[in-house]
Predict the structure.
Amino acid sequence: DYEAGKIGEREKEALQIQVRHWMQKAADQGHPTAQSELASLWYFGIGGPQDHARARHWYQQAADQEDYTAISRLARMCERGEGGPVDLPKAQALYEWLFEYFPLPEDHQAL
């Protein structure tokens, strides 16, 4: 019911497919936020099939442009071996970059 601000499952799926389509176009043009968002769509299977290898690829593309969210998610994927082999040295390097440029507030740091 569009008047009530609700859409049905078919409409929701159609919108998700469109979102993935347009994110792909923007990601292909090198936009890091679009690359990170596209990676999330692949990771969670929104707007199409779930594919962790493609998610990892797009997180890497965005991470190469210093997208914080992509770096964080790529580090976790490397640590867990999602979408590719476990790569602990890479995960550690990504986490270190995050903590260097986005340190925890002092009240959250370990003693």
